[in-house]
C-alpha cells in the first residue's frame, strides 16, 4: 500500500478539463445532447464524490437523467463497507446488461470503494463484459480521460492503480441541492479498525488546505446555502498532516466566522480524537449544530480492543458525559456492530447497558460483515447467525423504545428549524439536532429558518405547527 499523498497539479487538472471539451465536441459532431445517470451507494462521502462525477459529466455536455434506461453513460458509485452492499451492486450491475442491449451506445462505469478492491476489479473483467470502465476513488479526477478513451476507442479501461490517495482541487461539481451542501475536508483513514476496509480502498488520511475549504464554504454561503456538512472518515483527525498548525476545532471556528445565517454539521467523529476542545467549540458557537455522531461500535472494552478502536468503555462514557454537560440539548447518534467475532452474550449485554445509559436519539445498527483483507475476517467466530439475529433484534427494540421516549419530550416545545422540502401536503424541516419535522405551511418557506412548536411525535419524526411570530 502506497502512503505518500499525491497533490494534483493545476496543469494536470486542466488536461482533464480539456478531455471534457473533447467529449463535448464528440457529441456535438453527432448532433445530440447525451444523457447520464449516476447511482450512489453508501456514505455521505460517496454522495459528495457523485456530485463531482455529475459535475464532470455536465462539463462534458451530458444532461442528467433519473434512470439508467436509455442513458448514454451510467456510473455506479459503490460502497464496500458490508458484503450485502457489494452483492446488491453486483446484482444491479448485472441488470444493466438489459439497458445496454436496448441502448447499444450506453457506456457503463463502476467506481467508488469497491473499485479499490483488486478482487472486485478482476471479477468485473472476467464476469461483467458489458462494463466499459472502472476507476477507484484515487482516480476520480481522471474520469474525463477514462470516459474519452472509452468513447473514442470502444475499449474497456481501468484506472485502479494502488495509491495512497490524492487531493484534487477545482473539479467541477454538480450538487444535488442548493440549500444544503456536503464539503469534504479530508479523505482516507489511518485508524485501521480490524473490521473496516476503508483505509485499504480510500487510502491514508489527507487534509485539504484550510484556505480551500474556507473558499468553498464562503462561495456556498454567498449563493444561499443554509446548511453545510463537513465530511471525513474521521473529521477529528483534520490537520494532522498539514504544515499549518490547525486542528478540526480551529477549522470549525474559521468557518463559523464567515458572515451569514447558516448551520455547520459534521461527520464522522472518532472517539479516540474527540475531546473537550471540540465539545467546547461546539457549545460556544451558535452556528455549529448541537448534533454529534460518535460511533461506539461495542459496549465491551475487550471487544473494542479487538476492533482496534483505541478507547475503552469508560473513556467513551466520559466523553459523552462531558459533551452533554456543556451541551444539554445535544442530539447524539452512534453506530454499533452486533456479533463481532468472539463477542459473548455477556459482552453484548454490555452494549445494551451502554445504550440504556447514554440514551441515543438514534442508532445505526449493523450485524458484523467480514471484509476480505481485514484482520477481523480471519478471526474465529463461533457465534451463529441465529444468535446474532436475536441480539440485533433486541438492540433495535431497545433503541426504538428510547427514541420514542426522547421524541415525546419534544412535544409542547418550540424549535428553530430549517425548512428543507415537501412531503405530500406537508412541508419538512430539520431541528438544529437534525430531527425531521413535518408541518403545514407555504412552500415559499423552503430555505428559511422558522420557529415550529412540536405537537406530535413518532419513533423517527415529529409533527408541528408554525409559530407565526417567527
Plain-language structure description:
This protein has four domains: 6-166, Rossmann fold (3-Layer(aba) Sandwich); 177-264, 2-Layer Sandwich (Transcription Regulator spoIIAA), CATH 3.30.750; 290-406, Transcription Regulator spoIIAA (2-Layer Sandwich), CATH 3.30.750.200; 414-466, OB fold (Dihydrolipoamide Acetyltransferase, E2P) (Beta Barrel). The protein has 13 helices and 21 strands. The chain has helices spanning 10-29, 44-59, 83-102, 118-127, 143-153, 198-202, 210-222, 248-256, 276-284, 301-306, 313-326, 345-358, 385-408, and strands at residues 6-7, 35-40, 63-64, 73-78, 107-112, 133-135, 157-159, 166-167, 180-184, 186-187, 206-207, 227-231, 263-267, 291-293, 331-338, 362-367, 414-423, 426-431, 436-439, 449-457, 462-466. α8 (248-256) runs parallel beside α9 and α9 packs parallel to α11 (313-326).
Alpha-carbon distance between the two ends: 55 Å
User: What's the overall geometry?
Assistant: globular
At the fold tier of CATH, the topology name of the largest domain is Rossmann fold
Question: How many structurally independent domains?
Answer: 4
Q: What portion of the residues fall into strands of 2 or more residues?
A: 15-25%
| Class computed from helices, strands and strand pairing | alpha/beta
What is the CATH-assigned architecture of the largest domain? 3-Layer(aba) Sandwich
Sheet having the most strands: 6 strands, parallel
Radius of gyration: 23 Å
Low-confidence stretches: none
What is the helix fraction of residues, given as a range? Answer: 25-40%
The number of helical runs is 13
CATH superfamily of the largest domain: Methylthiotransferase, N-terminal domain
- Mean pLDDT reading: 95
Amino acid at each position: 500500500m502506497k502512503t505518500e499523498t499525491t497533490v494534483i497539479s493545476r496543469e494536470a487538472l486542466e488536461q482533464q478539463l480539456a478531455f471534457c471539451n473533447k467529449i463535448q465536441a464528440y457529441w456535438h459532431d453527432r448532433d445530440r445532447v447525451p444523457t447520464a445517470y449516476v447511482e450512489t451507494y453508501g456514505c455521505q462521502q460517496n454522495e459528495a464524490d457523485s456530485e463531482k462525477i455529475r459535475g464532470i459529466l455536465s462539463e462534458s455536455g451530458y444532461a442528467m437523467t433519473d434512470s439508467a434506461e436509455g442513458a448514454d453513460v451510467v456510473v455506479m458509485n459503490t460502497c464496500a463497507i458490508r458484503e450485502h452492499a457489494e452483492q446488491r451492486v453486483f446484482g444491479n450491475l448485472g441488470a444493466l446488461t438489459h439497458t445496454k442491449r436496448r441502448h447499444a451506445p450506453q457506456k457503463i462505469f463502476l467506481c467508488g470503494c469497491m473499485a479499490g478492491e483488486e478482487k472486485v476489479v478482476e471479477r468485473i473483467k472476467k464476469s461483467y463484459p458489458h462494463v466499459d470502465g472502472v476507476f477507484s476513488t484515487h482516480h476520480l479526477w481522471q474520469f474525463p480521460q477514462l470516459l474519452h478513451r472509452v468513447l473514442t476507442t470502444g475499449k474497456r479501461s481501468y484506472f485502479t492503480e494502488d495509491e495512497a490517495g490524492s487531493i484534487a482541487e477545482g473539479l467541477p461539481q454538480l450538487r444535488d441541492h442548493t440549500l444544503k451542501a456536503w464539503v469534504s475536508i479530508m479523505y482516507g483513514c489511518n485508524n485501521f479498525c480490524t473490521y473496516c476496509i476503508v483505509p485499504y480502498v480510500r487510502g491514508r488520511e489527507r487534509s485539504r488546505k484550510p484556505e480551500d475549504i474556507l473558499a468553498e464554504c464562503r462561495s456556498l454561503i454567498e449563493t444561499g446555502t443554509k446548511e453545510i456538512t463537513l465530511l471525513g472518515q474521521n473529521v477529528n483527525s483534520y490537520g494532522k498532516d498539514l504544515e499549518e498548525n490547525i486542528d478540526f476545532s480551529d477549522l470549525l471556528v474559521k468557518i463559523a466566522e464567515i458572515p451569514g445565517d447558516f448551520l455547520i454539521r459534521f461527520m464522522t467523529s472518532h472517539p479516540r480524537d474527540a475531546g473537550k476542545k471540540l465539545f467546547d467549540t461546539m457549545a460556544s458557537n451558535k452556528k455549529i449544530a448541537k448534533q454529534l455522531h460518535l460511533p461506539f461500535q461495542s459496549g465491551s472494552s475487550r471487544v473494542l480492543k479487538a476492533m482496534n478502536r483505541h478507547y475503552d468503555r469508560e473513556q467513551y462514557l466520559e466523553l459523552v458525559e462531558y459533551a452533554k454537560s456543556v451541551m444539554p440539548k445535544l442530539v447524539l447518534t452512534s453506530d454499533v456492530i452486533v456479533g463481532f467475532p468472539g463477542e459473548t452474550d455477556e459482552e453484548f449485554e454490555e452494549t445494551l447497558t451502554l445504550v440504556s445509559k447514554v440514551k441515543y436519539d438514534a442508532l445505526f445498527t449493523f450485524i458484523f460483515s467480514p471484509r476480505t483483507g481485514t484482520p477481523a475476517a480471519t478471526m474465529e467466530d463461533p457465534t451463529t447467525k441465529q444468535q446474532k439475529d436475536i441480539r440485533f433484534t433486541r438492540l433495535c427494540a431497545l433503541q426504538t423504545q428510547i427514541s420514542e421516549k426522547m421524541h415525546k419530550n419534544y412535544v409542547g416545545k418550540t424549535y428553530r428549524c430549517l425548512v428543507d422540502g415537501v412531503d405530500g401536503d406537508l412541508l419538512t424541516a430539520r431541528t438544529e439536532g437534525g430531527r425531521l419535522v413535518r408541518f403545514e405551511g407555504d412552500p415559499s418557506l423552503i430555505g428559511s429558518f422558522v420557529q415550529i412548536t412540536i405537537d406530535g411525535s413518532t419513533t423517527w419524526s415529529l409533527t408541528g405547527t408554525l409559530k407565526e411570530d417567527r
